[in-house]
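<instruction>
Derive structure tokens from the sequence

<record> Sequence and structure tokens follow
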Amino acid sequence: VGRVSQPAYADLSEWSRTARLAYDTLAMSVLAIMIAALGALATFMLGARNVMRGGGLPAVATFGLVRASWAFTRAVPELVWALLAVFIFSPGIVPGAIALAIHNYGVLGKLAAEVVEGMDMRPVEALRSSGAGRNKALLYGVLPQVLPRFMTYLLYRWEVVMRTTIVVGFVAAGGLGMEFRLAMSSFHYTTVTLLLM
């Protein structure tokens, strides 16, 4: 192995390459949280007890399936999802984003359902008593109350996802994590220092 003439953090081209990797990492986190948010928004009312109560056997079965899917996706760590995604797809930021999205779908869905279960149901009941159908009552009575809290949880989980993208990158899911692993295994400690910066 030849000697490096200057450390990586003193080379402008290395800074440029690292900035591209940081951009990929950020793109992975944005894609992951968007997919997770869409999944959670599509299912969170189906996993809320107070919304699904009184719907008969189909409602009970749907409620159980949604809750089980949230529990399962939350129980499996992001790293395991990333290993599966990289095995199914080719290495890159998309498998990493899918892995992070699957895990965070369960987290966001559960949090949003708990917000629905703890909310004031009087606006929904008022809409129903004034002749609004079930879907309209949920749209105008539940969503306005839930969305602000959902956005708070979404931003919090995005912060968590941004940190986790580095770990997911270790399994060849792209971004700074993969480069960090390669630099560590090759003993390029000046590159490691640059990535940490």
User: Anything to note?
Assistant: The radius of gyration is 22 Å. The mean pLDDT is 85. The longest helix spans residues 12-43.
